UniProtKB/TrEMBL annotation, chain A:
Enzyme Commission code(s) on record: 6.3.5.3
InterPro entries per UniProt: PurS (IPR003850), PurS-like_sf (IPR036604)
Protein name: Phosphoribosylformylglycinamidine synthase subunit PurS
Broadest EC class assigned to this enzyme: ligase
Family to which the UniProt record says this protein belongs: Belongs to the PurS family.
SUPFAM superfamilies: PurS-like
Amino acid sequence: MKARVFVTLKAGVLDPQGKAIHHALEGLGFSGVQDVRAGKLIELDLADGTGDGEIEQMCRKLLANTVIENFRIERLG
Amino acid sequence: MNSAVIVFPGSNCDRDLAVALELVTGVKPQMVWHRDAELPGGLDFIGIPGGFSYGDYLRSGAMAARSPVMRAVAEAAARGVPVLGVCNGFQVLTEAGLLPGALMRNSGLSFVCRPVELSVENSQTLFTCRYRAGERITIPVAHHDGNYQADGETLRRLEGDGRIAFRYSGEVNGSAGSIAGIVNDAGNVLGMMPHPERAVEDAHDNTDGRRLFEGLLETALA
C-alpha cells in the first residue's frame, strides 16, 4: 500500500525558494505567474493495514515541522 | 567543569567547540556519538555543534533531533543541565522541541558567512552573564538556514520574558525581530546561529565569544 504526504509551508510563512522560482519563471518569459510556493512530496510504501492515525503520527513526529508546515496525506490504492 | 559535545554524522564544528571549551575550562570535553542513548554522568554542560547533521536531509536538524542521544539531552536539559546549540545545534534544538520556533532558509537565499555585529539583549542568563546588557559584540555566522521564525504569540512571549539573548544589529538572514539567539523558559538552554567558538583566541582576531564560555564556567563553579 502506498501513501503520499504533501508538505507545504503554512500560509503567511515567507517562502524564499518559491520566490526565487517565481523570479526564474518570469526571467524565462512566463509573465502570468501570480505566486509560487515550494513544498515537498514524500512517498511511503507501507505495510497493508497501516492506519490513517499512524501515518498522521509520522507526519507530526517527523515528516512535517508543524511550526511552519502543513501536511496532507493521500492514500494510493 | 565537565562538558560533553554531541557528534552527529555531518557535524563539522564539534572539534572547534571542544577546543574552545578546553581552552576556557582547562578540561577536555567528552565527545558523545549520536547513537549513544546515555550521556556520561556528572555533566555540567552539553554542547550541540554546528555543521550539516545527516546532510540536512528533510529539514536542517530534523534527523538529528530524533537520534537516540537527543532523548538523553532532553532529559538532562529538564534536570537543568546547561545546553548550548550553535548553528546546526540551534536547528536541532528547535526541531527537538527544546526551543520554540523554526529556522528557515535565509531570506536572501544565499549562504551567509561573515562576522556580524550582535547586541546582547539579556545579560542575566548563565550564558551571557559575562556580557553587559546592550553591549555590541562581533561573532561570525556561517549558515544557509538561519532565518528564525515563530508565531506571533511565541515571539511576544520571547520578547516579554527576556528570552532573546542576542539580536543581529543589521540585516543578516530575515529573522523575525532580528533574533540571533534565544533561551528556553528555564534559561538553561541557549540556541544561537552565530559561532562563539570561532571567536575565542588571538589567532581568531576576535575573542568576543570567549566570555560566553567563561560565564558557563563561572556558573558551573558557583
